[in-house]
């Protein structure tokens, strides 16, 4: 025990009124001691124990969160320690008044940094809280869920800002893809969210290819388009196409080769143009 201080057998059992009086005495003594000494550590540790009730009082505001209360108290204690280290007796402010914002701030910072399943900007985290309060208030007023417009008017925000906040709220908590999607179906086969995720449709590539080839095919002559239609649309052989057009099979082969080469070259040029366009847009974005 430091010289000149009252003995405190168990600081955690001191009444709040006595704790306030002892806190003033110990804070005054702390300013006279050299940091790192045994007496300094004793006084500082006693101040922490004397004011743990402040931490528990502040932590009760967060008791409905999905975090163990003991963890919240530990985080709040960090705020209490910061308040003790930064308190200035010359300000003539009650230590309780000074310490509570530090404790609450540390707890809020903990929830902001660790509770969200997906990291979102602090502005949107705070907007989520405002939206929850506004939604509850307007629900009681209208006896129904408020619209986006009503929320925007109530919070004096634009509808786009409200929508951003609502979307960001989805990042607060997440579920596993292996969680049951229909827990009450009563079937032996449990459907999970992963089962409902769509797969890549192989037909999409065919559609994209047809869309890319359409303007190129239109540039071909009427006879060349007819040959392509008979060969790939009607699946006729080159001999059958030759008989239909009155030309040799060899001539049909040369015409097909010429048309396909032209289409491949045009498709490659179009792909290069698309890539160049994407690179150009990326450069503009980076420049901005």
UniProtKB/TrEMBL annotation:
GO MF term list = DNA binding; sigma factor activity
Query: Does Transcription count among this protein's keywords?
Result: yes
- One of the protein's GO biological processes: DNA-templated transcription initiation
Tell me which PROSITE patterns the record gives. SIGMA70_1
Q: Which UniProt keywords apply?
A: DNA-binding, Sigma factor, Transcription, Transcription regulation
A Pfam family matched by this chain, by name? Sigma70_r2
Superkingdom per UniProt: Bacteria
The record's InterPro entries line, in alphabetical order, gives: RNA_pol_sigma-70_dom, RNA_pol_sigma-B/F/G, RNA_pol_sigma70, RNA_pol_sigma70_r2, RNA_pol_sigma70_r3, RNA_pol_sigma70_r4, RNA_pol_sigma_r2, RNA_pol_sigma_r3/r4-like
Q: What is this protein called?
A: RNA polymerase sigma-F factor
Q: Which organism is it from?
A: Streptomyces himastatinicus ATCC 53653
SUPFAM superfamilies xref list: Sigma2 domain of RNA polymerase sigma factors (SSF88946), Sigma3 and sigma4 domains of RNA polymerase sigma factors (SSF88659)
Q: Where is the RNA polymerase sigma-70 domain?
A: 71-84
């Amino acid at each position: 025990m430091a010289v000149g201080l009252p003995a405190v057998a168990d600081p955690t059992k001191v009444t709040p009124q006595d704790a306030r009086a002892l806190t003033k005495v110990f804070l005054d003594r702390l300013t006279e001691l050299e940091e790192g000494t045994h007496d300094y550590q004793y006084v500082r540790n006693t101040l922490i124990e004397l004011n743990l009730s402040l931490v528990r009082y502040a932590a009760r505001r967060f008791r409905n969160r999905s975090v163990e209360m003991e963890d919240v108290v530990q985080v709040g204690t960090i705020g209490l320690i910061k308040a003790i280290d930064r308190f200035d007796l010359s300000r003539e402010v009650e230590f309780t008044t000074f310490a509570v914002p530090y404790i609450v701030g540390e707890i809020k910072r903990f929830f902001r940094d660790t509770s969200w399943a997906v990291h979102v900007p602090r502005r949107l985290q705070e907007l989520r809280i405002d939206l929850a309060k506004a939604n509850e208030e307007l629900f009681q007023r209208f006896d129904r869920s408020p619209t986006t417009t009503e929320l925007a008017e109530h919070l004096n925000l634009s509808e786009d800002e409200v929508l951003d906040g609502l979307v960001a709220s989805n990042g607060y908590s997440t579920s596993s893809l292996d969680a049951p999607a229909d827990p009450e179906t009563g079937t032996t086969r449990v459907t999970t969210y992963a089962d409902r995720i769509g797969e890549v449709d192989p037909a999409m590539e065919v559609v994209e290819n047809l869309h890319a080839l359409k303007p190129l095919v239109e540039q071909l002559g009427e006879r060349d388009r007819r040959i392509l239609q008979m060969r790939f649309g009607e699946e006729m052989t080159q001999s059958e196409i030759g008989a239909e057009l009155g030309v040799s099979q060899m001539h049909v082969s040369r015409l097909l080769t010429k048309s396909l080469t032209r289409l491949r070259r045009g498709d490659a040029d179009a792909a290069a143009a698309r890539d160049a366009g994407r690179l150009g847009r990326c450069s503009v974005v980076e420049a901005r």
